[in-house]
């Protein structure tokens, strides 16, 4: 299943004044959902019922008396949904270093991003991070974990293990704020490296190289990615090619969990005597972009 369709996001379709005869049936493309983002589109605000043109020629909502505050809330939600989508797109289309510089300059953006992210993820039937947390709980509590692109550090908050939570920026002092291509972790220091929907940057292979650097021999590499990014029928990468590139980095694929509708989970283990291939053919992971209208 693809994420819910954004056409539900009200207020996007323009109404023609006078409607009636001239009202065009929306074409299927104008109602098409954007390609899935890291998460389904934000909940929609219903279209404003009545519209008029103001002096600037922009359509403005004309709230009914008594409805003002709820309408303002909806407009705010739409604005922050738009801001979230812009940040999401930024993260998928720039390098980790650029993302780090961008978020470092305005740490508030991180809150905007994560408020939108949580909202959108609430529409997923299953959260990949919960699947990973359950997997960790059924394994060794003495393992040390590195959570690359930890977001709100849900892994650290829900397992007994020692967890290094890593993200671009955080107001949580336990989170290491850095570009995860270059962490301060020691070589061969962790048993599990997690990337839960976080292989976003255009230089994503360098994040996996960093995980390889910090993982102990036989350590686990657990990756959850948005299904559509790895769907070759829709412009996504071939999951086999993705796995193959990681095996060339020195890992073995132990299992692949494809039963979830929105994401695929890969469980790799670093080889005891891992050797990085001279040249690795990394497939491009399809960025989760929204269509411009
Ligand atoms: N893993 C969390 C959050 C996923 S959202 C969860 O599943 O809930 C993806 C996260 O990756 C975001 O918090 C984003 O800031 C982070 N991220 C993306 N690129 C990064 C980079 N280069 N370095 C560090 N964190 C990064």
What is this structure, in a nutshell?
The protein has 293 residues and is of the alpha/beta class. It has seven helices and nine strands. Bound molecules: S-adenosyl-L-homocysteine (SAH).
Task: Explain the overall architecture.
Helices cover 29% and strands 18% of the residues. With 293 residues, the protein is α/β, with parallel strands linked by helices. Among the domains are: 50 residues, Ribosomal RNA-processing protein 8, N-terminal domain (Arc Repressor Mutant, subunit A), CATH 1.10.10; 144 residues, Vaccinia Virus protein VP39 (Rossmann fold, 3-Layer(aba) Sandwich). The strands form two sheets. A seven-stranded mixed β-sheet has the order 5-4-3-6-7-9-8, sandwiched between helices. Helix 1 packs across helix 3. It is globular, with a radius of gyration of 22 Å. The two termini are 24 Å apart. It is found in: Nucleus, Nucleolus. One of its GO terms (molecular function) is methyltransferase activity. Belongs to the methyltransferase superfamily. RRP8 family.
Helix and strand topology:
Elements: E1 51-53, E2 59-61, H1 68-93, H2 96-105, H3 108-121, H4 128-137, E3 144-148, H5 154-158, E4 162-167, E5 175-177, E6 190-196, H6 204-214, E7 215-226, H7 239-248, E8 251-257, E9 263-270
Parallel strand pairs: 3-4, 3-6, 4-5, 6-7
Antiparallel strand pairs: 1-2, 7-9, 8-9
EC number: 2.1.1.-
Enzyme class: transferase
Family: Belongs to the methyltransferase superfamily. RRP8 family.
